[in-house]
Design brief:
Elements: H1 13-20, E1 30-33, H2 36-46, E2 50-56, E3 68-72, H3 75-86, E4 96-102, E5 108-117, E6 121-128, H4 133-136, E7 139-143, H5 148-157, H6 161-164, H7 175-191, E8 195-205, E9 211-213, E10 216-220, H8 239-246, E11 250-254, H9 263-273, E12 279-283, E13 289-290, E14 293-294, E15 309-312, H10 316-328, E16 333-336, H11 346-362, E17 365-367, E18 373-376, E19 381-384, E20 392-399, H12 402-415, E21 419-424, H13 433-441, E22 448-453, H14 459-470, E23 475-479, H15 493-497, H16 500-510, E24 514-516, H17 519-531, E25 539-544, H18 547-560, E26 564-565, H19 570-577, E27 590-591, H20 601-610, E28 616-620, H21 624-634, H22 643-668, E29 672-675, H23 678-681, H24 686-693, E30 698-699, H25 702-718
Parallel strand pairs: 11-12, 11-15, 15-16, 16-17, 20-21, 20-22, 22-23, 23-24, 25-26, 25-27, 25-28, 28-29, 29-30
Antiparallel strand pairs: 1-4, 2-3, 2-4, 5-6, 5-8, 6-7, 8-9, 8-10, 13-14, 18-19, 18-21
Helix pairs in contact: 2-3, 5-7, 10-11, 13-14, 17-25, 18-25, 20-22, 21-22, 22-24
């Protein structure tokens, strides 16, 4: 028997297969032969047709080098094939052998692979395989180990589903067998932590749907990433430390300034103008009275035991001495806005390490440094160096970028969907996004968490934080930096297809988090989670007052493939026909065909949302009547000619639609999403304004509403609420 060598950097095809065989990978019948005579004998024993390959520890992609001979039908052709292959051997190939195998017939090829990612450790990949695997680039990844259920979800996420189903007269691929191979990869990597990358490519589907692996490549290298790598501290901030950060009894701005352009002024101003619920103190070397606050020159002048949170606007060189004074006052948390740390070079990196060591020794929580600030609406706290201050609500934000915190707060102001907590992690010297996610998981004020991540330091820590929060509430993740993975193995198809972004997507999906691709999608999704109930399924009805909007939204639903634009049942069709004009669409999307000018839309909304075949509704067309009313108000004929009455009626109708949608949603426990471009083109229009007033979120397009509803359903399915 051929025994693989564990410390080889690249195993031959034969050695790779030998390593995988005990784990149930279904390989074709084959024999390793050291001579042409043995190869011919093996071919005769296996039965023609056969495949003959040249195999060696330094040979990776055989097809590209022409080292594979297919469909060999007799001994003469086998002899010729072996001779041709030997003529292609180079001095770099080392010891070679012939691998003789049965000729497996099948039109469909898959790839199963493993990479050892530097952040998340072992990731298993499933995709469309063969020599065009990288070109097709249809691959799904998950962190190992994967359960059978997770493996089945991976199969469902492959884009080319038609290849997995009945195909060219062949049976659908055996999904159970495929899922079992995927789950076995966890066992392989646990038993062989030296593996750097692994390719089973191709995994061929026979006509009966069964799977046969005909090639394998294993590369050894470093051991699996240590899940404990990254920062390790002797001190871990407690829940009380985070409460001091987000719900302080009193605050002190250290380094307050009378100059309106300096952070020391802006942070104090923002805290005062937004009516922080507790006491506000400030330090200033000149003891100036700033915005009505009498400052002190030294922290020792402040009362001990009263202040929970310090906000630093002072030079990095003075912060350690000031932090010691804060500890003496009983201050348990600090946000350090100061720059001049590791972002500034080697000296700054040293200063940051020293700051961390000191904070840990003092058992103080420090957020930042080089951060924007913290917002906590339950305490009316706006302690940051920029605007805005959002309305209160259920979204909590933790971001590696302060700019994105501002973006989300701006969207909150514009949409009316409020924020509970918001913080920029800055350099995340002591506490990072993961720490804030753990806090949000247990925070009653947080209904949904929203985070922006650029750099993943400790993938295992991030995964655990995501799983912790998604077990109880949704998490929306915006990721920056979709570049090639540093773990990419030079000879691995899987490594070549595994981008940082795709690896991260696989990690977030395994944790039940919702990964989005833009700031707009991020806030749309968070706002949806904050304002809508979770659906019990993916069956959606689109209700529209204008046909074109419904068509475009239906197209978006079809392209995404997550939601089901269901056919209307006969009884629902009958109920709608009794209320709508004869020209209504009689399908889904439900085009009301002008029915919005009567009192029927509200009834229809209740009927559709209440029907057992519908899990959610998207309503399009609100605001049209108010838009006409706006023009009438501005015209020279207003208020005469009956315009005053019709303007009031139009505006009242749009208000009714918004109110009804909210009431019907609560009545049936189903999401009803409303979309109109007026949400951004004319936010004061009675339509979107009434949606905001009702406590819901108004989407700028039907497509964005559909995307958000799909995210709502995906999380509901993760939690077991939806099928």
């Amino acid at each position: 028997m051929f025994e693989p060598v564990a410390n080889q950097s690249t195993l031959s095809e034969a050695a790779s297969k030998q390593l995988l065989l005990p784990f149930g990978v279904p390989f074709a019948q084959e024999t390793v032969c050291s001579s042409i005579a043995q190869a011919i004998e093996a071919a005769n024993a296996i039965g023609y047709p056969v495949v003959i390959k040249l195999s060696g520890d330094h040979i990776a992609h055989k097809t590209e080098r022409g080292l594979v001979r297919l469909n060999i039908t007799d001994a003469t052709k086998a002899d010729q094939a072996c001779g041709d292959l030997m003529a292609l051997v180079t001095e770099h190939d080392g010891d070679v052998s012939f691998l003789v195998a049965e000729m497996v017939k099948g039109d469909r090829e898959l790839i199963i692979g493993v990479i050892n990612d530097p952040q998340f450790g072992y990731m298993v990949a499933l995709g469309i395989g063969g020599i065009f695997a990288e070109a097709i680039d249809d691959v799904v990844l998950r962190p190992l180990p994967v359960t059978f259920e997770q493996a089945m979800q991976m199969i469902d996420e492959v884009h080319h589903q038609s290849i997995l189903g009945a195909f060219r007269g062949s049976q659908p691929i055996n999904r159970t067998q495929l899922a079992m191979v995927l789950t076995s990869m966890g066992q392989v990597c646990a038993a062989h932590p030296e593996i750097e990358s692994l390719d089973i490519n191709p995994l061929i589907a026979r006509s009966d749907g069964s799977l046969v692996a005909v090639d394998a490549l294993i590369e050894n290298g470093r051991t699996q990433s240590d899940p404990l790598n990254g920062k390790s501290h002797s001190f871990a901030p407690s829940q009380e430390h985070f409460n001091a950060l987000f719900n302080p009894r009193a605050i002190v701005v250290i380094g307050a300034s009378s100059h309106p352009g300096k952070f020391g002024f802006v942070s104090l101003h923002n805290a005062l103008v937004n009516n922080f619920a507790g006491k506000v103190f400030a330090t200033n070397l000149q003891r100036e009275n700033i915005l009505g606050v009498q400052t002190v020159a030294d922290l020792s002048e402040l009362p001990p035991g009263e202040i929970d949170l310090a906000f630093f606007c002072t030079p990095a060189s003075s912060n350690e001495a000031l932090l010691k004074q804060c500890a003496q006052l009983g201050i348990r948390s600090a946000f350090i806005a100061s720059a001049g740390y590791r972002e500034s070079g080697e000296a700054g990196e040293t200063a940051e390490a020293s700051l961390l060591e000191l904070a840990n020794s003092l058992e103080m929580l420090i957020a930042g440094p080089n951060g924007q600030g913290v917002v906590s609406t339950p305490s009316s706290l706006c302690l940051q160096i920029v605007a805005p201050y959002p309305p209160s609500g259920g979204i909590s934000v933790a971001s590696q970028s302060g700019n994105f915190v501002s973006s989300f707060l701006n969207y909150s102001q514009q949409s009316g969907v409020g924020i509970a907590r918001a913080i920029s992690a800055g350099n995340a010297t002591q506490v990072s996004v993961e720490n804030f996610l753990h806090y949000f998981a247990g925070d009653d004020e947080t209904k949904v968490a929203l985070t922006y991540i650029e750099n993943v330091g400790n993938g295992d820590s991030l995964l655990q934080a995501m799983k912790h929060i998604t077990a109880v509430k949704p998490l929306v993740v915006l990721k920056g930096g979709a570049t090639a993975a540093g773990s990419k193995a030079a000879q691995s198809h899987t490594g070549a297809m595994a981008s940082n972004d795709r690896v991260f997507l696989g990690a977030t999906r395994s944790a039940g988090a919702i990964k989005v691709s833009s700031v707009e999608e991020a806030f749309d999704s968070a706002a949806t989670f904050a304002t809508q109930p979770l659906p019990r399924g993916n069956r959606v009805a689109v209700l529209t007052t204008v046909g074109g909007w419904g068509v475009v939204t239906a197209d978006a639903i079809a392209r995404d493939g997550v939601l089901d634009l269901v056919d209307l049942s006969d009884d629902l069709m009958s109920q709608l026909s009794a209320l709508l004009p004869p020209r209504w669409s009689r399908n889904n999307p439900i085009d009301c065909a002008g029915g919005e000018t009567r009192d029927t839309v509200t009834e229809i909304m209740d009927i559709v949302a209440g029907h057992e075949s519908i899990d959610a509704v998207i309503f399009l067309g609100i605001g049209i009547q108010s838009n006409q009313a706006k023009m009438m108000r501005a015209g020279t004929y207003y208020p005469d000619h009956g315009l005053e009455r019709i303007v009031a009626y139009h505006e009242k109708q749009d208000e009714r639609y918004a109110i009804t949608a909210r009431e019907v949603s609560r009545k049936h426990g189903k999401p009803i999403l409303i979309a109109t471009e007026l949400a951004v083109t004319d936010p004061q229009n009675s339509g979107p304004a009434s949606v905001r007033d009702s406590g819901a979120y108004c989407y700028p397009t039907g497509a964005r509403a559909a995307t958000s509803l799909a995210h709502l359903y995906e999380y509901a399915r993760y939690r077991g609420i939806a099928q």
